[in-house]
Here is the input.
Amino acid sequence: MEPVVWLGDGIEIVDQTRLPWEEVCLRLSTCQEVAAAINEMRVRGAPVIGIAAAYGIALGARSIEAPDKESFLADLSRMAEMLACTRPTAVNLFKAIDRMLSAAGGGGDAATIKASLVAEAEAIHAEERAATRSISRLGAELIRDGSTIITHCNAGPLATGGYGTALGVIIEAKRQDKAIAVLATETRPLLQGARLTMWELMREGIPVTLITDSMAGHFINRGDVDCALVGADRIAANGDVANKIGTYALAVLARENGVPFYVAAPTSTIDLSLASGDGIPIEQRRPDEVTLIRGMSIAPQGAPAANPAFDVTPHRYVSAIVTDRGILREPYVSTIPRVLSRASTTGG
Amino acid sequence: MEPVVWLGDGIEIVDQTRLPWEEVCLRLSTCQEVAAAINEMRVRGAPVIGIAAAYGIALGARSIEAPDKESFLADLSRMAEMLACTRPTAVNLFKAIDRMLSAAGGGGDAATIKASLVAEAEAIHAEERAATRSISRLGAELIRDGSTIITHCNAGPLATGGYGTALGVIIEAKRQDKAIAVLATETRPLLQGARLTMWELMREGIPVTLITDSMAGHFINRGDVDCALVGADRIAANGDVANKIGTYALAVLARENGVPFYVAAPTSTIDLSLASGDGIPIEQRRPDEVTLIRGMSIAPQGAPAANPAFDVTPHRYVSAIVTDRGILREPYVSTIPRVLSRASTTGG
Here is the structure.
């Protein structure tokens, strides 16, 4: 199931808030609708957020009827700002927006720019799809036959387009006939693990067992887990990784028990402008995502709650980062710039 | 609110599965009803399970109309076995049952034994209440003014009788006018933190913020937490601690960040018969406690799930164990037997 499909005059997305109960597709025709869908996490996952935002700008450009190029670009810039305000942590969003604005500045009349923006969004989409294919193949080398892999949140096709990052690696290992099993953490508060990872892996016929986030340490400590494998929302220049809240705990538990902790993410997730994870903004979402589950209260009336959506895992806990351009290891401060300076080897 | 009240011909319990939405008391008149209430976690928390089981045996004894003492004791033994099958991890259950069976063997006719069983159950209840008072006072010395304390699951008055263990310490620190704040983990799957700890601390006027279990590491790593404080279901002779699933992860995260990790539990929770935590049986509960929340599905139809209810925290992660007879530190293998050999100093 494709998380985002370009229709020529809009995009169709899978409403990820309604899975696994309903498979509902939404048609989004305006930049505003795309921004709302990102903010409400109907479309989610760092790479897919970038793809959706790119199409959002292409759709926004189509709606602009400006008298001159200057005001066209001013209108487009306002739309880009609206998209940039939807979610602060995943860098793919900002990179996609920057790339679209660069494409808009490429010259020609409004009609030419509008066409080039659609082409640029389609290029971003195609590159992200290709990156997941490359990540899946490279990462599968890390998965030994007979492994049990623990994953957190959802870094599958829904989150990334194409094959998925962390789940792409797992699915590829299965296709290589490796006997693997997966422990999927439910990933409170929004249960992307229970809802989406379980759904994707069960459809692939991969043996997967759901656990609460609190159980990860128990199974790792018992020796039931061979590696941990997650996606990423932003990776700093030193290899610090922002990912779904709970990732840091999983990384600490893995290292404490001598279990490798792998991150799988496209190079578009790397933010060289940040020297370390300290500078990554952590999205704070509504407390009622914690106090309500499917609309039902789980706490006393008026209970205060905190809801940071991400945490930062220091690079020293990260055994390897699987990118579309190779598997990176410490010292990330050297290996990350090196891989980014190389030409892409994904080959589409 | 008292979790268990002896009525003379039954007990009244607070149905902890219905808090915080409804404050419902249940009247239990038979040993079978008590066993079912423990199994279904309507009455829960290691010390309170022991108290309820003791009353369950006293109630069971009342119902026995055996022709002679031998068959009376045989009937009573069957009831004890039924109670012992309800939950395997909390040792207080087995200690209370053993103590009641010893009391039954004390001589006299059936009427005398029935009366002495009621007296023994009331003694267990009173001792557990007194123990929590002592734990609260001793433990409060560990809480510095201005502290933020993270706790997991529920070790308050509902779980322990009296003042609570971990929450008793927190409540006592507040009564000593220390400025404290609490982070309460929701404690999936059954949400005792969100439902019960939040309810108890909000009633006490203690500033408390609900977080998901997955957020604990993030807040500890940010430096927002001064200590972790939890209860226990069974403590082995070497200081290994079985407690609600997720406790091990919290302990690892605390130590990784130089934050003290404290356990508060009555000496009745210590099991000297086990040299280490390896021997502690871990209760495996129904998978649908993970896949359903308040009866609503959170995962795809047929999703496999695991549900270990407890984990074991190795003693090396435990900074101190606050018991009713003193604060214990490493080497627990020496300090635990020493405190158990001393006469109780709780003084009621």
